[in-house]
Amino acid sequence: PSGTVKLWNFSLATPIGVTDGGGGPTSHFRTYEGVLTPQAYRSPERINGQWEAIAISPLHCMDSHAMGVLIHDFYSGNIPLKLRKAVQRLQTPSLKMRPRLGPLLRCPVFDTPFAKLMGELEEIQVQPVEEKLRFWQCLDMEHIDPKVATHKVLPIVQSTITTICGSDSMLSQDLYRREVLAMMHPLFYISENFLEDDKICNALTPLMKFLFDVKDRSIRGALLGKTPLLAAHLSKNNLNVLVFEPLCSGFADSSDALRELTLKATAVLVPHLHPTNVEKMSRYLVRLQSDNSASIRTHSMTMIPQLCQHLSENARQKLLLPAFARAFRDPHPPCRLASLNATVVCQEFFSLEEVATKVLPACMPLVLDGVGDVRSQAFQVIDIFLDKQREDHQQRSIGDVSGAVTAAHQPALSMQPFPKPANTTMTASTTTKATPSVPTSSSSSYLGGLSGWYSSSTNNSSTINNNQTSAPSTIIPTSAAPPSKPPPAFSSLTLGSTTKDDGWDDEGDDLDFGNQTKPEEDVFASIGKSKNKTSGKLIMSKAKSSTKKPQVKKLSMDAEVGGWDDF
């Protein structure tokens, strides 16, 4: 099947003529050649038994005649024009006129690419390295026969790679590394196009161990470009051991192009990696975020959503938010765009609390980004997360709609009624609204304020208890208030009787209410009551102003007497 012509069945081999030592064909040949050889391929002298003529003829005579018959049968009688004369000479009855077979190969009919390829493949192993390199670089795999490629070219490639990569001395020479690189294309082309799926693994697995160990960037780049083929046909264990582990050395290479190729190649291997290698890959991504190449930083962000699908919960939490927060501050605009897109893709891995407290605060500065595309994308990402939060709010509010409505109608603050004074029982048929009055003298302000507070408290308590409101009474002030100061508010003080000499401006007056045994004799008992038909006003008589203001004494309460004992 490899296209190689093989000769077999040499049971009729025999010395012929003077060149082979004379004697003619052996008795064995004479006995069995008529039985084993088809009649058309027997030359006339063999059919006629002219053994003496055969013994003195050249060696090629019988074989030349058989070759002419073979060419005629191969073309089914339609022999090419350039070959017809040669075929006639091969089949001539004269033994001496039959030409040799060697010069026949110079005929243009036999000078074909296939014949040239087969000839080169036969001699490739003994050619110098320069000729081998030229052959592999010029080999056109698109026009080669699949059987020749599978059974002839592939075994040569496998044996050569194994020999070179297994020798440190050969790998140290650039010429041999170039030969290995030249054989990479035929190797993967044959595997992809000519081999069956179950045979690709057998063809490539033994070579991966050698090829990934070669310290050559060109060879490594050719291998990285074929990682999809390796991921599709190699076993999971072989991918982790033979491919991923040596491949990770490319992340530390000084070449930006090789580091980027390594990053792109690992994206294909992620679904096939063991958990330990997946976490190892996440650490490489974190390291690549600080890479000098902006393209590598951008590609690392596009790979994070794919990698986090296979990470554990703990490893995912350690990777996502710090990686996105760092990428949001990247000076390269495409990297910021890639991080925003990756954030949306990974939204299923963020809780609502993380979105509100970490993701959205990290995205907000990008709405002020200097690049318009970044700003637009930031607004879209924020809207997506806000819609998610709003949807959750609506779902959580379905169960407590009634409570939310009730809470919306409650006042913000509840006013509590003023506490009622202790040990005081007061009833009023009508409630009088306090109106401002003007004090008659400066010495009456303290008692007026006290009585105003007491009257206001009583009126409030009476209003709450009785649940009714009456029209306020009209109170005429005794004197006009000074225009420069607002008049202080005083409540009306109702007393049983009034006298002209009951002013509070005399310094020598000493008020002593004594023991109040009867409630009706208490001066303050009539406050707010309507026992007397005519309620008088507390009229302060004007007193002559003295040069010296009266000194106000300390006000104290005697618990035993129950009145005001000193003023």
Report on the structure:
51% of the residues lie in helices and 0% in strands. With 567 residues, the protein is mainly alpha-helical. The chain has 23 helices and no strands.
Question: What topology emerges from the helices and strands here?
Answer:
Blueprint: H1 27-36, H2 44-48, H3 51-55, H4 61-74, H5 81-90, H6 113-123, H7 129-138, H8 146-165, H9 168-171, H10 174-193, H11 197-211, H12 217-224, H13 227-233, H14 236-247, H15 256-269, H16 275-288, H17 294-308, H18 313-328, H19 333-345, H20 352-363, H21 372-397, H22 401-409, H23 445-466
Helix pairs in contact: 4-5, 7-10, 8-10, 8-11, 10-12, 12-15, 15-17, 16-17, 17-18, 17-19, 18-19, 18-20, 19-21, 20-21
Short synopsis of the structure:
By secondary structure, the protein is mainly α. It contains 23 helices and no strands.
What series of H and E elements makes up the topology? HHHHHHHHHHHHHHHHHHHHHHH
Q: State Rg.
A: 59 Å
Helical amount among residues, as a percent range?
Answer: 40-55%
- Overall mean pLDDT score? 77
Shape: elongated
Q: Which stretches are low in confidence, meaning pLDDT under 50 for 5 or more residues running?
A: 412-451, 453-546, 552-567
What attributes does this structure have?
disordered C terminus; 567 residues; single chain; mainly alpha; 51% helix
